[in-house]
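Format notes (please read before filing issues)

Several people have asked whether sequences and structure tokens are stored in separate files. They are not. Every record keeps both together, in the order shown below: the sequence lines, then the token lines. Line labels are part of the format and must not be stripped during preprocessing.
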Amino acid sequence: SRSCLCRVRPSCVLEHEVVYLSGFFFEYTSPSSSIMVKHEVRKNSQKGKPEAPRRKRTLSQKRTSAIGVLAFVSVLLACVAFPLSRYCHFRQVYNEEHSFWNPRFDGYLSGEADKLAPRVLAHRGGADLHPENTVGAFRAALFHGADVLEWDVRMSKDGELVVVHDASLERVTESIAKVNELTVSEIQALDAGYRFSRDGGKTFPARGKGHHIPLADEILGLFPSERHNIEIKDNDIRAATSLYKLIESHGLRDQVCVVSAHCNVINHFRKISARIVDISKRVNTPPDFLARNVSCKTFPRLCQLAVPICTGGCESEMVDIGMSCMAGYKFWPEPKANVLQLPFRQAGVDVTETNIIQCAHDRNEHVDFWVVDNRDDIRHVIKAGADGIITNRVDIVVDVRSAFLTFLLGPY
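Then the structure lines:
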């Protein structure tokens, strides 16, 4: 008696009629209107019998469910937080202990005295006393009591690392050529003491005395028991790769710190020199027994840290760290460098009077200042708490430091 248009689709019925067709429905369009009416129903195994309505959950049931969810989340967070907390602890202790500058890992150091006064880094071997970056300068620096030999490397035309500071050879030799224009044999044929003078250019006592520009391989081979602070001057990652291979070949991984003003170079060096270390084995305090036997066995990767060779901060890193320290953000950004090497004075500002030293120490970073040669400045830097002094006058710095230690510890 009714006209209708029907199509088959899942689970619905016409108007108020209940028709169970197990997975189908009908659409009904009334001829007197264009309104389409749909009535959805649930499937039921018994024809003609509607499904029973759902029971509403009581408040106590909701509370029980919520408590169960919270308990599960709490347990999950505890399982994650515990190993992460141990990892952070391991990493902090490892950074404090396994350090290029820590005498506990450098057996050739005297020990206790080095914790009280800064180390002496012979700038280019002590450039005011002997021709810079030469074997003779490095031997003299060690004779005067230097703790670290500081020197620079550049790549020659044939890809070898030579120990020289400037891109041009004019300031130290009789040649005006650039380092990357000459081969190693041509560079070593030059007189590295040709321009050296102690009286402002009146006399040149080192001319013709056999000083040559050494190779990086030569310096590492001649001084295998000393520590070296090496600066890569070229903005070329090939120099970083070559230096890393030399360091590994001489077995001086724990005796070298590499610095560069170029961030791409120093980041590349960190990447290729990183070695996976099980940091849990370096932490010997009793509370770590549980973490070592639970966290490290359950989550072994949490106890592994990629540790590169000691590196210094590049220019942009030091700017970021300096700005964050002055702003009070001591733990931002994440420290990558082991040491910051800063000028003693910058644009007329005494850098030691800022909070940069304390801020760096809070981040497990050490601070060296360059170039400090005056006795009053040396005393000021020591009192400020610097970790290292880069100097052209190793003899003066060692003398002032000895007097400072005598004042602190008495005669010894």
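For reference, the curators noted about this record: The two ends are 121 Å apart (CA to CA). The chain is about 35% helix and 15% strand.
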